[in-house]
Amino acid sequence: MQDSQLFDDIIKQLQEKYTKIDQDTDDHLYGLLYSKPITYWDYIQTDALLNLQIQRTTLPDEMVFIAYHQINELIFKMILWEIEQVASKDDLNAEYFESKIMRISRYFDMLTTSFNIMREGMEVQQYMKFRYTLTPASGFQSAQYRMIEFASTELINLIDFRFRKTIDRNTPFEHAFEHLYWQAAGKDYNTGKKSTLLVNFEKRYKGDFIRFMQTYNTKNLWTRFKELPKQDQQDKDLVKAMRHYDYTVNVTWVMAHYNAAKHYIESGTGDGEATGGSDWKKYMHPKYQRRIFFPELWSEDELNNWGENI
């Protein structure tokens, strides 16, 4: 009798669910008679996932390189998923904001420590061989990472310091895009000519980036933070979480990446150049790029010494 009552309640809830979307409940219940039970490998799409690692060489450690970067992209997707929830939440408060920021920070904490896999997980000789098959590709071309930047802070904080005084909220997005801090890494310093690395990147993603910049111009993490009541903006846990996220992404994670790249590129077995041809040292090191998501949360001394003592 109890089971019958339970089933009746479930059927009633299903009817309410399907009525709301103008669907026939009987059709959906009938379909259950022919559907297969779910399995772990079908749900996770394990076979498809494990067939995405396609090497360009016969060198075994290239598999480590490919899988590692694919894992990074999956983590970036999870980060963007968390940011979107903050960006679109109507009744945003300090507690919710802090919990999401810490989720995102834990992803970056994991990415930071994972660089040991890159640094110690490949033979230098193997890497210095298969890396030439990657030219002119580069991790510089991670579109999701660029989107994380756009979604984290106001656009002015991503503009090359040399051009910030000439750009404001009335500046066309196309113009601002040409002056993003990472544009300098893809251009010849003397002529301004864009490298193949940058040309290919823009050809594939520029349109997506412009639309994404427009979308997050008014709902990035910093803008949403400033919309909170003053009391929430002064919440110690939230401020601590925001600072942790900013430093983790823009100093700790960047330096882990920098040191892993340095381990191989300056090993003495290659030409000392990045695969995409960028000025990788100045592009990657935080004391040069000085990218800071939430500058108002740092002291003047902290800002002046950003990335210096590491």
Q: Any idea how many domains? A: 1
Number of strands: 0
State the CATH topology. Methane Monooxygenase Hydroxylase, Chain G, domain 1
Top CATH class:
Mainly Alpha
What is the CA–CA distance across the termini? 69 Å
What does this structure look like?
- Helix 6 (94-120) runs parallel beside helix 13.
- This protein has one domain (58-304): Methane Monooxygenase Hydroxylase, Chain G, domain 1 (Up-down Bundle).
- The radius of gyration is 24 Å and the shape is globular.
- The chain contains 16 helices and no strands.
- The chain has 310 residues and is an all-alpha fold.
- The N and C termini lie far apart (69 Å).
- Helices cover 61% and strands 0% of the residues.
- The model has no long low-confidence stretch (mean pLDDT 91).
Features:
single chain, mainly alpha, Methane Monooxygenase Hydroxylase, Chain G, domain 1
Task: Describe the structure concisely for a colleague.
This protein is 61% helix and 0% strand. It contains 16 helices and no strands. It has helices spanning 2-20, 25-32, 40-44, 46-50, 61-88, 94-120, 124-130, 143-152, 173-177, 196-216, 221-227, 230-233, 236-265, 280-284, 286-289, 300-304.
